[in-house]
Queue: 4 jobs
Job 1
Amino acid sequence: MTSRFTRPLFNNIQRLPRTRPTTWSVATRGLRPSLGASFATARPRPQGRPQGDNVRIIKIPRLPLLMIGIGFACLGVGLYEYLTSDIQKYPPPIRQALRKALYYQQPGKDVNLSTRYFKEALELALQSDEMERDGAPLTGIMIQYGALLESLGRYPEARQVLTLALRHLVGFENDPHATEKKPDQAVFDLDLASFPPQTQRKIVGIAQKLGDIAQETKHDAEAEKWYTWSLEHLLRISSKPVSTYGDTDQVLFDKEHMPAWLTHTELGAALEALGTFYQTRQKHSLAVHLYLRTLTLAGLKTCQSSVIMNNLSESFAAMGQFDDAKLWAQRGLEIAQNPNTGKANKDGDVCDEACGVLLFNMGMLFEQTNDKEKAMIFYEQARNHGRKYKLLDCIRQADRAIRRLQFEQTQPPSLPSA
């Protein structure tokens, strides 16, 4: 199981809010009832009927009217939020295209229409004189559009859009009429610390996304460059000088020195991304180093830490260090099986999946070290766990391993060669 932190660096990039449908009501015309009024209405009296105590009064209960009044008030607030939302700041043609793009991006809608309207909105925004070239509204369209393309597996287009967003953020596109523009690779020579914190966050998030895309498209050198460049920046701004006397330029990472806009989870995600990249490229010693650093940030009592321990176990096993592999797998299993782990962070589903994978991997480790009896025990536990939590892949893998061991047990022992 090679899992990843949820990628908050990119998810926290400011995105365009979804629009609310326009709802007009009497509240917008100031006809809201007064909550302090006495709500009583007299029936009209017939002609000739004397006035007095026999007049029937219909009293309307206060609670329904109070709820109606609150409803009108909430409606007025919602309408105000809608009319003043960020999307209203766009020029009308761009705003209309964005509304359609966001509408069709919703589950169950036509996502292809969403990409079409995002493209239209981006083209209009690039042509508009009202949009700042490096401003959040313009780059926000690019980020949202690029993320959607990536989710659809349209990697070349996603790479193009996200690279354009990065160029705008760092100022490479500030002059649309420039005859000579800096190449994309020039971004690696920039000092990101000179940018505002939120811009740094967006740049790093996009770099991580570009690394993911390059990895998916088998451009390993490019993926490694994006991952290392963004991670090195995060580590650099989270480090402090080794000496307080200024006699050396060396710095040391200190998680207490991290900037306010960067969380442990975000830095851990960047470390784990590069570690997973190295693991899938058979560079296990590098992966182990990064996973261990990730673990110091994730802590030892989270479901995510059990996933990282599983990754450590896989890397040690790939290097033939089976004792270390078993040790990390067992530690991860203890965390994943503890019912309090998932409750603490409300990510019990991560623990459930990690537990199934770790049980199966423990069986694999014992099978590789010729302890078939223990291997069978862990395979059966993995299958039972998969059945309990409806983890179909876990069930299939465990079933296959159990049948393989059962088949081997029915075979006569091979005679030693003469």
Job 2
Amino acid sequence: MASKLPDLLWAQRVPHVYLTIDLPNVTASTAKIELTEDSMHFVGNGGIDQSKYEVTVNFLKSIDIEKSSHAIKPRNVIFFLVKKEEEWWPRLAKEGKARNIKVDWNNWKEEDEADEDEQPPSDFDMSQFGGMDGMDFSGMGGMGGMGGMGDMSGLGDMGGMGGMGGMGGMGGMGEPDDEDDDDDDIPDLEAGEGEKEGDEIKEEKKPEEEEEAKEEPKSE
């Protein structure tokens, strides 16, 4: 039975190429991938019916085989190809256009749009290349450093932000109100004292009133 030809999708940046064999359910145990400086050859079973697929691509320019790598994923096979010379390729294959080679528009950027510090597309998750010889992650826009986010454990102190629940303690701000209440009570206390003084005055006047009452009959 003749092998089928899978579709290839490609995108690039000045330093590297993103190449995808658009074939799901590739059986890793039976797939054979040969990657050289000038070409890529794939043969393996995939698709719903696990048919045999095979494809060969002769690259327009050479790649650095030591820094390039690939990974078999559930939906496709991906390649991260590092160019030997950092330059823009007008096409992927040396032979020219091929009916099964298509532009990966989801990941494509024009030469003047590419950012040197940008991270690889999500489809090309670098964790898929973990442990590959020659794979230098230091030049991958610091993705490895993202793991350093684990250091955010130091932000556990921010858990103290929960202490802002202690802002409830700002209910203690009510204390000045209590003091104000005390201040408001002061006039009442003075009034009370005034009343006591008034009572004392009245008490002092009682004897005089009694004397005046006694003197009235004498005037008659």
Job 3
Amino acid sequence: MESQNILCSNQPLLLSPDECEIIIFDVETTGLSNTDEIVQISAISLHESIFNSYIIPSVSMSKGASIVTGVSVIDGDLFLNEERLEASSAADAVNLFIQYIKTFEKQEILLAHNGNRFDTPRLLKLVKEVGKLDEFCEYVTGFADSLPIFRKVLLERTETALIYDAVHLFAMALHVLDTSQQIDVKPLSCDSTDTWDHGYSLINYMKNVEMTGLTGTIKFDNQGFRSDFTLEIMELNTKNGLEEIGSWNSSFGINFTRSFREVYTQMIDSLQNKSFIVTTILSAPYCMWKESSKRLAGNAQFEGYSIDLIHEISKILGFNYTIQLVPDGLYGSLNRETREWDGMIKELLDQKADLAIADLTITYDREQAVDFTMPFMNLVFQRKVPSNAALLLRQKVRNEPSSRLQPAKEYRRQPTTSPGKRHRRQPTTPSS
């Protein structure tokens, strides 16, 4: 492996796999600017030796970083969603990382995806700030970035296959031309207007020749454009890496080969360890402030049917979430004059939230703006007009499987007998 030792030398190093230990690392930060701080250092070797350490930052987490990582800073403590993390100072985290690196006997190469632009400079900055750069240099030979390697390998394979097919096609057309007529060879000058007598014939043969090459069927139309070729549609997922999910043909278009069950299963798998913002509204018994003698933060501040429901769904599907109350305290209505929404619908459309859960009636206007799941509760008023409540998704998605939730039983909170607690109002009918 060729690697640039950016710490101790400006000369390229040539190391064999037996001479170095590749350690894949990643850092999470409070934001994307150069002044943001690292909150997590994680690494894994090719032999699956794992390192992970959280750092208490001196600055607050940006909203975007919290959404992506699920990490937040509350009263000087680090939280991953609702769970408090054991975090250390920056100096202690760097010391632990160096101790981890010392366990390997070979020269270490630290590898990160997009490391040259993000992970590497931020890690080096932190190591230098805590005064451990010299000790770090003793064990780390250099850094590598997997992003350009990934791009180069794919590009080289594609270009090589296309060149091979082009040369093969030219040779076949020239052979057909040679068998059909006498080919005369004469010298030509690039500055002359003279042309090769068989040039147009060779081009026509190349258009008419059909063959199967490394890139599939090679065939051209009358204008010289490649036709009737097929492209594989690949998808990158965290479970199987690059996976073929269909094909595209210049004559018939897209053909997805996955079944509905496979698509649905992959959608469920794709939610694993993702972090979402869930918007809701205070409305007993669906969402209420939780009364406690202790100071509560994050999702622990709320209780109610909706809170319990989203919590159970997250456990089944394996995603993380942060509950946020809608700022204007409204469910969501369309202004007919301005054509703008307010309330939770606006939060979804503005992409300030990923999901909404509340006692929200499903109406025609709302269904045109956002996607609903199946209602989790159906009620009928005395005048026999049905009302319902459901989860909302952020945007309209056509022809995709949706989460199916069975109608829930009536939710009843246990009455409290603790002295000094105020009585809450009785559960109300879901409304908008």
Job 4
Amino acid sequence: MTTKPDHNHPLFLSSYDVAGAVQIGIQLTGMENYTLWSRAMRLNLLTRNKLGFIDGLVQRDDFKEAFEKQDWDRCNAMVISWILSNVSKDLVSGILFCSSAHLVWTDLKERFDKYDYYSTSCLWYDSITPPPACGCAKSKDYTDSLLRQKLLKFLMGLNDNYSQARSHILMMNPTPSVNQCYAMIIQDESQRVLSGEHSTSGSQSNGIEYSGGSGGPANSSGDSGGTREKSSIVL
């Protein structure tokens, strides 16, 4: 005898959980609005106890019974339909044939999350170069040197589309921090999007790339939106 999951169970679907029920008021168009869109989607899925489907925490293999697997398939399809209802038509074909909501979410995140390359590279660099604990003059000089190295690593990781912005930042006095530099690059990227510099045909990457060695973060350009090193963004 099968038992219907209660409302706290991730496999529970109410009579209101139908295709098109989730309308967050934002259509994902690309990197320029991914952060706002993903936040709104996560909040909405949280209210429906379906975050596990996009985070990969609720897997089909977690369930043993055939009816549970059927419930998972139904919930998974519903979450995919909710995502599809909130992305632009240009993006639908690229994610329509993904087998799970987790794969859909990961694909969109890799293509459009412009914070990935920055946060991942800085966390990796910080882990191998911890700042000194004391506040003496020699320590300050050492810290300034580390920050300069981090800034250079960040700038050298940008692709050639940002060579002019990179040269401008390197000539600035005083030298900006990595956070300030990052804000400048994002502003430059926004201006490029607004001016229509990026191709809308999908033949060019419209993302910021970050490349690194085998021991650190690494990216490559590919389909529209580019691909970047994965990192988690949580609520």
